[in-house]
Amino acid sequence: MSDHQLIELIERYLNGEMNAEERDRFEAMRRDNAAIESRIEEHTHFTGLLKQYGKRIELENRLNAIHQEIDVHTLAEELTVHPNWVVKLWRNHHSKISVAASIALFAVVATLYLGGSFNKNTTSYTALRREMQSIKRTAENAERNNKAILHDIKSNKRVINNGSFAGSGFALTANGYIVTNYHVVRNADSVYVQNSSGDAYHTKVVYTEPAYDIAVLKIDDASFSQFGNLPYNFRRSRSDVGEDLYTVGFPSDSLVLGRGYLSSANGLNGDTVAYQVSLPVNPGNSGGPVLDSKGNIIGVISGKQTQAEGAAYAIKSRYLFRVAKEITKDSTDNKIVLNNKSSLSGLTQAQQFNKIRNYIFMVKVYN
Amino acid sequence: MSKAVNSSAPTDSEVVFGILNDSDVILKRLYVAYFPMVLQLIINNNGTADDAKDVYQEAIIVLYNKVKSGKFELSSKLKTFLYSVCRKLWLKRLTQLSRYGGDIKDFEEHLPVEEEGDLHTERDIQFEKMEGALKLLGEPCKTIIEDFYIHNHSMQDICERFGYTNADNAKTQKYKCLQRLKKLFFQQG
After folding, report:
1. pLDDT in tens, chain B (189 residues)
2. What's the complex ipTM?
3. Where do the structural domains in chain A lie, given as residue ranges?
4. How close, in Å, is residue A114 to chain B by CA atoms?
5. Which of B 71-90 lie inside 8 A of A, CB atoms?
6. What fold characterizes domain A129-367?
7. What's this model's pTM, rounded to 2 decimal places?
8. Which residue of B has its CA nearest to A61?
9. Which B residues 146-185 touch A at CB under 8 Å?
10. Which of A49, A69, A76 lies nearest to residue B43, judging by beta carbons?
11. Which residues, at least 6 apart from A298, have a Cβ–Cβ distance to it below 8 Å?
């Protein structure tokens, strides 16, 4: 019997088209022959699947027919969550809006720039670090300088090459921390400090706070052991407008004293980090201390306004406390405690100057 | 934000009995009642009306099969069940299309949909294979097979329809077609 005939028999059997005699014969065959039994099963399964598949298709057709009757378009319109008009405007026109906004922003920036409103970066504010004169020196001067260096060597003093930039700085603690401006030591390869007696030390920058324009150096030099006790202290409270002040620094190669008064409680454009001070300052004064008449340090010179006479700025001393705290927090061995005892109170200006001169440094930056 | 969709829906037990009795009326009322809810879900989550149709019909079929197989328990509202299944199916599709931003805007409460197997059964896979095999089978085999095995037409009808002069030729043809269909079916993965 061929497979074709067998399938036909199976189909007739399953469809109940056999007469009784035929059916008995087929069922006997089915019992005796496992191969036939499995063919029946296989055929039943496959045609069953076909039938179910047909039903599924039929169901899908029914669903499609129902679907046809629904006005999907209107329904969709109704059910879409319509964003409010601002969002719609943005979705439809965001490229145009972006372009317009960029142009407007550009125009504002350009106007402010040309109008000089960014004066920290432009003409009216100058950070007071000094380009070293040596760069501009003539050959003659350089020769003289060489002689001086030779002289220094003979007299067994440490010699420092002239740096690219210089500012001022002053001792923060007796163990070799020195404060200056961040802008003085920015991008520095190496930094040296030198006081008016000629003691020069190599330092490393241990902390910078660009937001306050403060940097802290630490003397990193075998020849250094300790400063004596600092003669000045640091004022924690705010100072009053009108107080007499003085500053010392290195606007030239020697230490210069300048006197004046506190002229405003806030700095440039209301900057609360700084005071405005009326003090004669020049490039090189940056980083120098500002002291009141009792010898309390009330600030650090940071810059001046070029368009107004006598308006200089000093970072308030309380930020030095903050910096000291930060350094202490960030390191294990560097504990910084700011001096709170002044030995300058009651001394004349000249006596004070003499006492503090060795704690004020020219900060030389090489880059 | 969400606008609940109301329409005269058949009761949940009406639906169950309707499906069991192959009622066209109930199927239609069911379909019409909950389609807007699913359309709302899909079109407000990066889909089109056609996506909504596909997802919704798939969900109806899931419900249909569950009811027919006696596995459907009315543990939650039918509406919630359909919404949850559609949500799950749509999430799956969105992920496949990498259009899923990790956030779906919902309009109804929904339940976690249990097993993946509920949504895509062994039988669905078989059906897909059957569809593919029938497509490859070509005419007149496809129609002969469909007429005989699906629509239960007699061999007599088929003979007349295809102009076979004798029933044996038609039977031989049908046998050959079935053998080819099996071959095509089992060849697919």
Report:
1. 444 444 477 888 888 888 888 888 888 888 988 998 999 888 888 888 899 999 999 999 888 888 888 877 777 788 888 898 898 888 888 888 776 666 777 777 777 776 655 666 777 888 888 888 888 888 888 888 888 888 888 888 888 887 777 777 888 888 888 888 888 888 876
2. 0.81
3. 3-68, 91-126, 129-367
4. 44
5. none
6. Thrombin, subunit H (2.40.10)
7. 0.46
8. B57
9. 146, 149-151, 171-172, 175, 178, 182, 185
10. A76
11. A235, A239, A243, A245, A262, A275, A290, A291, A292, A314, A316, A317
